[in-house]
Amino acid sequence: MEEKQQRATAYWKINLRYLLILLSIWFAVSYGAGILLADWLNSFRLGGFQLGFWFAQQGSIYVFVILIFVYVFLMNRLDRKFGYRE
Amino acid sequence: MSVQVWTYLLVGLSFALYIGIAIWSRAGSTKEFYVAGGGVSPLANGMATAADWMSAASFLSMAGIIAFAGYDGSVYLMGWTGGYVLLALLLAPYLRKFGKFTVPDFIGERYYSRTARIVAVLCAILVSFTYVAGQMRGVGVVFSRFLEVDIDTGVVIGMVIVLFYAVLGGMKGITYTQVAQYCVLIFAFMVPAIFISLQMTGNPVPQLGMGSTLADGSGTYLLDKLDGLSRDLGFAEFTSGSKSMIDVFAITLALMVGTAGLPHVIVRFFTVKRVRDARKSAGLALLFIAILYTTAPAVAVFAKTNLIETVSERPYADLPAWFKNWERTGLLTYDDKNNDGLVQYVADPARNEVRVDNDIMVLANPEIANLPPWVIALVAAGGLAAALSTAAGLLLVISASISHDLIKSVFRPDITEKQELWAARVAATAAVIVAGYFGINPPGFVAAVVALAFGLAAASFFPAILMGIFYKRMNSKGAVSGMVVGISLMLFYMLKFKFGLFDGGKDAVAGLQKYWWFGISPEGFGTVAMAVNFAVALLVNRFTAPPPESVQQLVEDIRLPAGAPPASQH
Q1: Nearest-CA residue of chain B relative to A17?
Q2: What's the domain count of chain B?
Q3: Which long-range contacts (CB under 8 A, 24 or more apart) does B330-334 make?
Q4: Domain annotation covers residue B282
């Protein structure tokens, strides 16, 4: 029982660390690049796009999709490592 | 063949398909009715979630709003996609592990209280009804323009279709019709976008075409050209906004958190088999949604540029037929103020002669770009798919709230499964009729309230669910007071600043803008109300007893993915 509890706690801690990292990126691309820093980033260009505008209307959405799939990959690996895979 | 014939053909075929699927996948048990038996594959659930999520607002209105709001429209793009990251990482896997039927189920059990459950039911019904009335209206608009029936008849036809497959099929029927509806709507959205992108920039990928140079060989970037045209006519540049930064921030956050808290979206993750399927289908859902959401700003740019070039300073008599067709619906108006026979489309309201409704940009876009009739008909079928799929998902939440969360869990726990299934069907029928009524007699506030449904969801569900998973010590008094204070504050702010209820009605609204708290609009206030919900919950929680051991055990249990009970275990 003791060992089982420890395993669960360790699993949860790693999960929280993943969440913290992934959500920081989530915040950085949307609220950071797309809103707070958008004016400054607009002085750079990506083809026909001003960069801040691109993050707000395109880039942040691409990153969101990638973030979820990275999370799926990390968690599946973690489940296997801790023996929680169904 | 004419547009009209093509429209009857494509809309008729797609409706036949939905009804066929509904008959094939009708629900025989409450499990099937509420969560499709819990055996939906992640891919199917991803598509169904995408269709469920993308409403008439996403399909018809969003590109139009962006076309007129430019950068400010980003709040919808980021807000309505970023919420899926929260959903996938913070809510979906744990709610799936919990493994019951509805969101109030979770709130009621996690907070071991009937009051919590009833508060959650009321929030779910309020959020879903405000949202569904807008969908029925969207159905009416599409019918009235393309099938030339009046809007009311359009709403009734839409009601009959939804009634048929939601009542018969429940979640099971809805899931598989939504898969079909996703395919129809994404095809309908992409085909004209690709055509127009090719026409204007020579690049078949709209997301890239938007940032490319024009196909006319001038070497000018499309966005620079649109900025220039907008400047010349006195409009704000497309790529820069006019909302304050704090408001953009608050609206985006309210929409994201609201998305993650919408019961009709959350409940979709109860339909898959395992916890890891819930994670994966959230990713797939966002991928499917992102296809439309990254295309929408491109469509906005194409449509706005085309619109300006087609109408600005042209003689009214020479305008193409689509202009006059849309004038008949009243969604596009022309008023020759200076009697020069030319069309002035400018920012200055005293000189501007054209008023274009946001909602027609996507529908009119293929006509403006001279695309073949079948493409125009396809867009009509896509708009209907988007509106019907969302309406069905919402109606199911309403019916489950009534039959499962109120009748079965609170008032009459002794009814049999068969009776509960009947109650669910009756509730769904009643909900369709009420929604249809609001579609036919839209109280002036429907459109305004749809955007606010997110604020309501953000202010009520999100904090309660999040703390239910991540904060074991959170007790029922804390969570309930948080939800009640959060949603009341949101309702108050909405009534005060959106409807002017306390200051003399609708006409007072514009003058109240300078009194907005922290400069945040009612659309963005969900962010503040959510923060208040958290604060109240934590404060009350501090001074009241911790939840019982069994509930803390439940929280421990939902944090681990292995051994998720099938959704049917109840």
Answers
A1: B89
A2: 1
A3: B331/B141, B331/B356, B331/B357, B331/B359, B331/B360, B332/B356, B332/B357, B332/B360, B332/B364
A4: yes
